[in-house]
Amino acid sequence: MDTAAKQSPAPAAEKPSGAAYRNLVMATIGFALTFWAWNLIAPMSADYKDRLGLSSFQQSLLVAVPVLVGSLGRIPVGALTDKYGARLMFPLVSALTIVPVLLLIPARDSYGAMLAVGFLLGLGGTTFAIGIPLVNSWFPPSDRGLALGVFGMGMGGVALSGYFTPRIAKHGDNLPFLVVAGALVVYAALAAVLVSDRPGRQVPTDTLAHRLGAAGRLRVTWELSALYAIGFGGIVAFGVYLPTYLKTWYELSPTDAGTKAAGFALVTVIFRPIGGWLSDRMHPALVSSAALGVAALMAIVQAFDPKLMPGGTIALLVMAAGLGTASGSVFALVSQVTPQAKVGSVTGIVGAMGGLGGFVPPLVMGAIYSSKGSYSIGFMLLSDLALAGCVYAYGRMRNIQRDA
Predict the structure, then answer these.
(1) Cβ–Cβ < 8 Å for 60, 363
(2) Which tens digits make up the pLDDT trace of 30-66?
(3) How far apart are CA 257 and CA 263, in angstroms?
C-alpha cells in the first residue's frame, strides 16, 4: 500500500527503552481507570431500573449512551493526540472525566439527568485513541503487537467496574463515584509528570479536518474498522449488557451477575495481548480470522440457551477469548500498515467504529427481549457478523503486506 510504503519503521535490532516501558505502564493504568469511569453506570443499571421504573429499552439506552459518545469522541481525540501528543492529552482527558463521575451523584434520581451525565461520561472512553499512538511510537515493529496488546489490557477497567462498583456501593451509594474520582485525580497528576512523547515524533502541520479526511480516505481504515467493530464491539457490548442479560435470563442477583460479567471481561483482557503476541509471529489477519471464527461458533451455542453451568459459562468464556484475541490482532495490523504520523487519526476512526459496534447490540438485545422474550435472535446476529469478519479477514486482509 502507498501509505504503508511511507512508513519508516525502527531497525529490527532496536530494543524498547526504559521510557517505552514507563509510558506503556502509565498508558495502561490510565486506560483502565478511565474505562472504569466510562462503565460506571452499567453495573448499577438494575438499581437504576428499579428506582426510576425503566423499561428494558430505557435501561439499555442509559447503559449505551456513554458507549456512543466515547466511541465517536475517539475520532477528534485521536487526531488531537497526533497534533498535541499524549503528554498533554492523557492528563487532560483523565482530569476532565472526574466531572461527570461526580455528577452521577446528584443525577441518580432523574432519568433525564442520568442520560445527560452519561453523555459527558463518554469522555472516559476516548483515552484508547491517546494510548495507541503513544505506545506505537515508543516500540519497534517487532514488539508492537505485544505492547499494544498489553496496553489493550486496560479495557479490564470494564471488569474492575463490574466487580468492584456494586460491592463498593454496598458501603455507600455514592462511594463508588468518590473512589473513582479520587483515583483519577491521582492518575492525572502522575500522568502530567510521567507520560512523555517520543523525542522527534512527527507533528502534523495540517488541519484537524484534513488529517481526519486523509485517514478516512484510506481503504484499510474502514476494513480495520469493520473487523474491530465486531471484535472490540462485542467486548464492549457484553461488558455493558452482560450483567443485565445474566440477571434477566438466568435470574442471578446483581452482585453475582456483575461478578460473572467481570470474569468475561477478564478473559478478554488476558487474551488481547495473546492476540498481539501471535500477530508478531504470523500475519495478524490470520489470527483475527481464527479468533472471530471461534466467537461465531460460541455465539451459536449460546443462542440455544444452554444452562448457565456448565454450558453457558463455557460458551461465554470461550467467546470472550475469541473476541479478546481478535481485538489484539486488529490493532497489531493497524500498527503495520499506518504511517506513524497518522496512527492517532486512524486509531480514532477504528476505535470509534469498535465502540459503535458496542453501542448497537445492547439496544438490539433489549429491544428483542422486550418484543420476543428471548435473546436467541441477538446471539445469532452476533454469530453472523463474526463469521463475516472471519471470512473477510482471511480472504482479503491476509494479503496486506507486513511492515511494508
Answers:
(1) yes
(2) 999 998 998 888 888 878 888 888 887 788 788 878 8
(3) 10
Cell representation of residue 313? 459459562
174: three-class secondary structure by DSSP: coil
Please answer whether residues 176 and 104 qualify as being in contact, where contact means their C-beta atoms are separated by less than 8 angstroms.
no
Query: Considering Cα of 305, then 306, then 311, then 313, what sign does the dihedral take?
Result: positive
Closest C-alpha among 226, 219, 213, 232 to residue 338: 219
The 3-class secondary structure across 311-356, one letter per residue, is HHHHHHHHHHHHHHHHHHHHHHHHHHHCCHHHHHHHHHHHHHHHHH
For CA atoms 281, 287, 291, 294, the dihedral sign is negative
Q: How far, CA to CA in Å, does 243 sit from each of 115, 229, 309, 386?
A: 19, 21, 16, 22
Rounded (10°) angle between helices 284-303 and 313-337: 160
Using alpha carbons, select from 125, 128, 147 the residue that is nearest to residue 136. 147
The model's pLDDT over 173-230, given as tens digits with 9 standing for 90+, comes to 889 999 999 999 999 999 999 999 888 777 777 776 777 787 777 777 888 888 888 8
Q: Where are the alpha helices (DSSP H) in 139-283?
A: 141-152, 157-169, 175-194, 208-216, 219-249, 254-279
